[in-house]
Write a structure and sequence with these properties.
This protein is α/β, with parallel strands linked by helices. The protein has helices at residues 2-9, 13-21, 25-32, 38-50, 67-84, 109-126, 141-154, 169-179, 201-217, 229-241, 259-267, 283-292, 294-307, and strands at 54-59, 93-97, 131-133, 159-163, 182-186, 221-225, 250-254, 271-278. Helix 1 (2-9) packs antiparallel against helix 12, helix 6 packs parallel to helix 7 (141-154) and helix 12 (283-292) packs across helix 13 (294-307). Its cofactor is FAD.
Length: 308
């Protein structure tokens, strides 16, 4: 029940100021967001890839209120891609983007977001990698899927994210699985009303398995975004049943959560991609990580008590 409360706090300027000012906050945030600049994040990229892991990289920040801020977000990704080029990692380091950062919520936002994200997708392709469009709240998804479809005309490897807790997602998955897309399936981390989304964990878990089965049996490339040991085991069984080889799907987990499991899956031959965020506007991302899992909140609360 704490999840919705935390998600509401993620949109509160007062809570943002309170939590950001707490002396211990940065120490805890560093667990999930290991840097604020490209210079700080590149050593993490090298460390993870040296350990047999892959990455999807997110420049955090969603409160875009002007076209100039949207252009700055675009440029931040272009800088990241330029700095990754000498490492020659190819698809081992891809990008994840939220279209809200590219101006999707502004007047004319659909066209603006498409115009801003396209150069990022082009630059990623030039260094041998790709971009995945993150899913946000349900009101943005029709625009996101339309942009995804448009980008795939020239860059078919462009991925997208679908969220198991939304009622619409089974139909979205059916369409995407048939289209040969790269699709990341997550449970969902936004506060959604009961009219559009499952509210109970057991309902979300059952939907996750139904949708994952569709993806595994389809023609696309499934990306399993979960830290849940039970769902990971189910994913492995579904992959075996569907006759998929280890390089025909991948697992994805967040930086800072279940790091030992990242290494275990990679050691077993699975593709294991770590969702690695960096940047200065970390608050919204951080609060959603707390909302997703009670253990994250307990970790933060203990740190506030013992180090604050």
């Amino acid at each position: 029940m704490l999840g919705p409360v935390i998600l509401a706090a993620s949109r509160s300027d007062r809570m943002r100021r309170l939590i950001s000012a707490a002396p211990v906050t940065k120490q805890v945030v560093d667990r999930f967001i290991p840097g604020e600049t490209v210079d700080e994040i590149l050593p993490i990229v090298r460390e993870l890839t040296d350990n047999g892991l892959e990455l999807t990289m997110d420049v955090v920040g969603e409160d875009i209120t002007t076209p100039e801020q949207a252009a700055a977000a675009r440029d931040a990704y272009l800088e990241l891609i330029d700095r990754l080029k000498p490492l020659e990692l190819g698809e081992r380091a891809e990008m994840s983007v939220k279209l809200s950062m590219f101006g999707q919520a502004l007047p004319g936002g659909h066209e603006l977001a498409l115009a801003n994200v396209r150069p990022v997708v082009e630059a990623a392709a030039e260094i041998g990698t790709t971009v995945t469009l993150d899913a946000e709240d349900h009101t943005t998804l029709d625009s996101m899927f339309a942009i995804h479809e448009e980008l795939r005309k020239d860059f078919p490897g462009t991925g997208c994210v679908i969220q198991a807790y939304l009622f619409r997602t089974e139909e979205d998955a059916r369409r995407l699985a048939a289209a040969g897309s790269r699709v990341r399936l997550v449970k969902g981390a936004y506060k959604e009303p009961a009219e559009v989304a499952y509210q109970q964990k057991h309902e979300i878990d059952k939907a996750y398995v139904r949708i994952l089965r569709m993806l595994m049996e389809g023609e696309g490339y499934p990306m399993i975004g979960s830290h849940d040991p039970r769902l990971i085991a189910i994913a492995q069984e579904l992959a075996r049943t569907a006759g998929r080889k280890l390089d025909e799907y991948e697992f994805q987990m967040l930086y800072g959560i279940r790091g030992d499991e990242h290494l275990r899956l990679a050691a077993e031959g699975h593709r294991m991609r770590v969702y690695t965020a960096y940047g200065t506007d970390w608050y919204g991302y951080f609060m959603r990580r707390l909302a997703e899992k009670p253990a994250n909140l307990r970790f933060f609360a203990r740190s506030m008590i013992t180090k604050g």
